[in-house]
Amino acid sequence: MSTDTEKIGRADYPHFLTIPTRWMDNDIYGHVNNVVYYSYFDTVINAYLIHAGGLDIHAAAIIGVCAESACRYRAPFAFPQNVEAGLRVGHLGRRAVRYEIGLFAPGAPEAAADGHFVHVFVERASMKAVPIPEEIRAALEPLKPAG
Amino acid sequence: MSTDTEKIGRADYPHFLTIPTRWMDNDIYGHVNNVVYYSYFDTVINAYLIHAGGLDIHAAAIIGVCAESACRYRAPFAFPQNVEAGLRVGHLGRRAVRYEIGLFAPGAPEAAADGHFVHVFVERASMKAVPIPEEIRAALEPLKPAG
Amino acid sequence: MSTDTEKIGRADYPHFLTIPTRWMDNDIYGHVNNVVYYSYFDTVINAYLIHAGGLDIHAAAIIGVCAESACRYRAPFAFPQNVEAGLRVGHLGRRAVRYEIGLFAPGAPEAAADGHFVHVFVERASMKAVPIPEEIRAALEPLKPAG
Amino acid sequence: MSTDTEKIGRADYPHFLTIPTRWMDNDIYGHVNNVVYYSYFDTVINAYLIHAGGLDIHAAAIIGVCAESACRYRAPFAFPQNVEAGLRVGHLGRRAVRYEIGLFAPGAPEAAADGHFVHVFVERASMKAVPIPEEIRAALEPLKPAG
Question: Which residues of chain A neighbour B31 with C-beta distances below 8 Å?
């Protein structure tokens, strides 16, 4: 992962989703609460898995569960504002994938926040780890950095 | 307010805001949780007050606080999906306004949910009710149904 | 339902659950956001259905879905604070139940907020309304007002 | 920070707060959503700052803002259940503090999740970093590991 002083730009992310903030995202200090950033993370990730990877969150026998997540907060967001969530795949293993996410204010060249999120794929009934389904793997491949 | 069997259509609402659902809006039953509908309500309302009425939620001396809200749930929403939130003003008093909100699936002629929300305007420091500020009143007038 | 000026006391509710507020319950105005009150409502209701009525939210073939909810806000809550949520049954029909909820500050004789919530019971797979399961009905009976 | 295979026990945390889960904490997969863990983190942290450190979240001129957070998920939580949140201070700098948090199921010897959270203290008006106020520093000192 990038160091604390590294700039994270839009070119680092091949996929973007725009997520509008909501009134209740703001906390008592007038900015989007730190917790809410993670809801932007799992929204951009799961929307991608559903739309590009065919994940059926209602009935799929194999699902992704979060094993680890992290976020660094560099500049605040606030309601009302759009958040542009960039997504890439940092590591694609046999049973797990590490997503890397950058959150950008509209038009801003550098991320206001960036983080990662690890999905381990499990059999829904037993919660045992299993290989990433092929359709999902095929959708994740194009999100890996070139080279 | 309309009765339970009345159909609520898009023409009933002069203002609309599109609000995408988020992953965590879904509850264990696979649909948007009943609580989250109210976050759509206060998002469409406050976004309108800020953009059309000049409300400064960080510094305004007079703010709107919720005195009452209600929702009827007719059909479910789920992630991923857009919610089209319609807004009108049912009653505009001296110190309070009653908003009426309809939530529509994209393209659907009838509301999947509808409800109301009453803002009482108060002096922020004392929480005492005060007249609705003129700039906000002027923004709310056009949301009243035509005579 | 009681009128706006009626006082709602603790004796009106046969069952109570204490719900601590959370940091992010506070909104930019420094009080618990109006939306969050409804999460207290469905927490006291579903905890009761699970503990007293044997509802299995993971596997039950019949579940309760929210058809209507409402809340009147009389006095604010804030983090950190406990909310004491009182629950009673206002109407127990064949397929639906109307809960009435009062939210109290610790030690306060009158509710800071009160509202209602209607559950319609449905077959989970088809979402068709069905009679309230007997075990749940038996648990709800004692929450009806005497007389 | 501890490695992935290290066990995190209760003795690692000098301060605990019990946080009951809520109905809407559960996501479509039937467990507490990954995002919600962070609301447990900032609840145990801010409750401690308020109660032990005298932080006035409504009026304080100096506040803590989150610069970084992370969580590892080892075992699920679900509603209804209590979460016992353990808190310690991993590093106490001049302007920033790193909290480390362990979330335990009642009676469980090992954490179901653990993570960290960095607060940078800033002047509320300017958002410029400033030294940690003395009363807060004094409250944080006892949360540092012995030796």
Answer: none
pTM: 0.95
Judging contacts by C-beta atoms under 8 Å, the chain B residues touching residue D24 are 27, 33, 35-36
Q: How many CA atoms does the CB half-sphere of D75 hold within 13 Å?
A: 13
CA triple D65-D68-D99, angle to 5 deg? 80
In order along chain D (147 residues), what is the average pLDDT of each group of 10 residues? 66 97 96 98 98 95 97 97 98 98 97 98 95 98 87
Reported ipTM: the value is: 0.94
Adjacent-strand bridge partners of C71: B69, C115
- Domains of chain B, with CATH numbers? 10-143 (3.10.129.10)
Chosen for mutation from A19, A23, A38, A69 (greatest number of chain B CBs closer than 10 Å) is A23
Which amino acid makes up residue B139? A
Q: If residue B82 lies in a helix (H) or strand (E), which one and from where to where?
A: strand B82-92
User: Would you say the C-alpha torsion C123, B84, A24, B89 has a positive or negative sign?
Assistant: negative
Look-up: residue for tokens 């989250």? B36
Helix then strand then coil, in percent of chain A rounded to 5, is 25, 35, 40
Cα atoms in the 13 Å half-sphere on the side-chain side of A45: 25
